[in-house]
Amino acid sequence: xxxxxxxxxxxxxxxxxxxxxxxxxxxxxxxxxxxxxxxxxxxxxxxxxxxxxxxxxxxxxxxxxxxxxxxxxxxxxxxxxxxxxxxxxxxxxxxxxxxxxxxxxxxxxxxxxxxxxxxxxxxxxxxxxxxxxxxxxxxxxxxxxxxxxxxxxx
Length: 154
Prior knowledge:
Helix content: 40-55%
Number of strands: 3
Low-confidence stretches: 115-119, 145-154
Order of helices and strands: EHHEEHHHHHHH
Strand content: 5-15%
Radius of gyration: 23 Å
Number of helices: 9
Distance between the termini: 70 Å
Largest sheet: 3 strands, antiparallel
Number of domains: 2
CATH topology of the largest domain: Multidrug-efflux Transporter Regulator, Chain: A, Domain 2
CATH class of the largest domain: Mainly Alpha
Structural class: mainly alpha
Strand order of the largest sheet: 1-3-2
């Protein structure tokens, strides 16, 4: 028989606030049973699901995407290591993309914030007449819009 955890035990062991656990439950990402007094009781296996949710969010998955991933887990048994590995195998490319973005951020701290640089004098050279603004809102140089290179040379 699987160990059952109270909300307080679940919070302490998972490191996730009770409000988040209740929200995850409302979305169907985790499940809990109710005691006769209406208190939540979590099967210990929910700790793995919560850990998966935390990691998946850090990789950049939305809660909807996480729900779709969790729906792929086998039913009728507690998921095993290979089940979790199968779900997270597709994360490598997302992690690589995040690493690349963080490296660009690190390199761009001295250069780009909104339109492509921190210097209004330099903006006139790199982005005359706000050509980047034609591509849409936000930091267009930072977002590395593919058409940006064409704008700079015009």
